[in-house]
Design a protein that fits this description.
Largest sheet: none
Number of helices: 3
Number of strands: 0
Number of domains: 1
Length: 81
């Protein structure tokens, strides 16, 4: 378990303590909620970036075969070194 020390204005600390907001279970729950919200926000940001990226044109089966052949040749060349 880790102990965390925070600095707050006296009035805010007193009000938060009286409301029970500084109790470890409340702080833990709040931090977990914030972390979840951050992850969700990051996910939506990634989705927006993906949607903003132009979709590449579809490759024909011949183009795919050529790419695979080139990739295999590159791997063989690296393995031979």
């Amino acid at each position: 378990m880790t102990t965390v020390q925070i600095t707050l204005p006296d009035q805010l600390a007193q009000e938060a303590a009286q409301a029970g907001l500084l109790a470890p279970p409340r702080v833990e729950r709040w931090l977990r909620e914030q972390l979840k919200a951050e992850r969700v926000g990051e996910l939506f940001a990634a989705i927006e970036r993906m949607n903003a990226t132009p979709t590449p044109s579809a490759m024909s089966p011949d183009e795919i075969a050529q790419e695979m052949t080139a990739m295999r040749a590159e791997r063989r060349a690296k393995a031979a070194r």
